[in-house]
Amino acid sequence: MAKLLLNLRHVPDDEADDVRAFLDAARIEHYETRPGPFGISAGGIWVRNDADVPEAKRRMAEYQRQRAERVRAEHAQAVRDGTAETFSDIARANPLRVALIVVAIALLLGLMALPAILIGR
């Protein structure tokens, strides 16, 4: 029975490509399901044979460890260079999105405070 190796929700294309490549290189049979049309299912990469699952998981763990090290190093270098993305960069690129998020946070905080305000009366 097939086992899910990687849920593709929020997975960058380069990471999914790397996973496909290391599975192909190891000759581990796999297939991919595509995201559903309504965003309910994100799709995934599945290992076909149960016997291959431990090896696929071992390779996946090693890949994720290496990727995490590489991405952390790249981010640290960007911070040192002053090229890392900051909040002000995000706010300039997507001002409406940031404003809506701030309003949503304020509304949630207000709703959380409402019981205390009502009890205090």
UniProtKB/TrEMBL annotation:
Presence of keyword Membrane: yes
Organism this protein belongs to: Luteimonas rhizosphaericola
A Pfam family per the record: DUF6164
Record field: transmembrane: 98-119
Taxonomic placement: Bacteria, Pseudomonadati, Pseudomonadota, Gammaproteobacteria, Lysobacterales
InterPro entries: DUF6164
Protein's name in the database: DUF6164 family protein
Keywords: Membrane, Transmembrane, Transmembrane helix
